[in-house]
Structures
1.
Amino acid sequence: MYSISKMKSILSPKFSAFSPHLPKPKTTCLPSSTRPSSESIVPNNLSCFYTHIRLKSTPLLPNTLACSAQNRSLQMGASRPPSGEIHVIVGPMFAGKTTSLLRRMQLESSNGRNVAIIKSSKDTRYGLDSIVTHDGAKLPCWALTKLSSFRQKFGLEAYEQLDVIGIDEAQFFEDLYDFCREAADHDGKTIIVAGLDGNYMRRSFGSVLDIIPLADSVTKLTARCELCGKSAFFTLRKIEETQVELIGGADVYMPVCRQHYVSGQVAMETARYVLESQKVECGSHT
Ligand SMILES: [Zn+2]
């Protein structure tokens, strides 16, 4: 169970505690081409302008929808926007997805918004109550197996007050689509999702790609190829395990460019073949 003081710290995390590890937040953390005009991260002096735009867009809705949106807005309090936003950050491992998520959350928090971060309880590499990037930045978070349990565990009243929800390692949440749709469409939350778009076989991982049609913005980050230093788009598994969900760090995975992904896969298959044939030989001698 989380104590009230911990909940408060999650609602208003003290980012200064880890700021030495994080670069100063910049509004340019996403490429400008991918930032929608309705982006919620705006300098303070533009926030009134932003609110104005959001309110002005309401009359464009059909009458019945506008009424229900207004009713919902009234139920949720006059200051809450009628709908939220969904921003998705994808890329291979070691591309800085979690760092980017933390920066966004830090920025939202410094703009006075209530934030909370959720990560999968499957990833226990750095403890269950904090989120840590590969470069060591750390933030308190909620470790859950299902996103649907968040509202209840966080507390309904606290949830109502929440503005921004960050979700890390989103590929591990089966109910990602439903949670994001509900939280953004009906609860007015801004959701920032970070996760792997593809697994080590370059196939869609979990439900991350399913939420692209729901998203306001999508950012694909790249890493550096561990073998040649070029931009890396893929994650190569260095060991033989073939289960899709194998949680590990640099001991198991490395970011690679297209060329080295292909040659790496060939090398892995050759190694597997050699190992298999050695097993057969050993077997024949016994
Ligand atoms: Zn390479």
2.
Amino acid sequence: MDWKIRELIEADLTKGFIETLESLTDVGLTPQEAIPIFRQRKASGVLTLVAVNSQDQIIGTASLIIEQKFIHRGGRIGHIEDVAVHPQAQGKGIGAALIQTLINAARTMKCYKVILGCNDKNIPFYEKQGFHKHENGMRLDLPLLVEGGGEGESSQEMGALAVTI
Ligand SMILES: CC(C)(COP(=O)(O)OP(=O)(O)OC[C@H]1O[C@@H](n2cnc3c(N)ncnc32)[C@H](O)[C@@H]1OP(=O)(O)O)[C@@H](O)C(=O)NCCC(=O)NCCS
């Protein structure tokens, strides 16, 4: 095995991390633009794992977000997000290792369940990791209207999220 799994560090942003995420969707960020996002995510407690090859290039990634509920007496659940393996590295067990490492992290964090959303094509992959289909996913697209910025630009610090109801 010529790869290993560890936590994402800032230096990885120039080492194939964005290219790896592109196997999931269009990312449209330079490494420089990704730095403040990396810092905000880390400060808000998102765990982002990467798979790195022997040249320290990023070839896979997956993230875990822990949510504490009121229900289940304050029980925690883990959300797995943004699972991507570089096209040239797929089929080597990297996706499975990323998911199993996140499941272990969720277990350590005392989560009572782990959930994720995926398309039909990837259901067999997640079933092999122990997941089963449960209920349905729903989605509402919200066009962002940000002053002085284009669609999708984030001017709001996560920590300063303030909503007027
Ligand atoms: C889906 C993805 C993460 C899988 O990662 P991977 O490293 O290629 O998968 P692995 O090599 O770890 O596969 C683990 C097992 O799942 C199987 N598997 C992987 N993808 C599969 C698929 N789409 N359908 C059926 N089985 C699949 C493998 O054959 C392997 O089976 P085995 O344990 O019997 O040998 C990867 O293909 C990917 O990044 N795809 C593009 C982005 C994407 O769709 N991400 C998921 C978003 S929800």
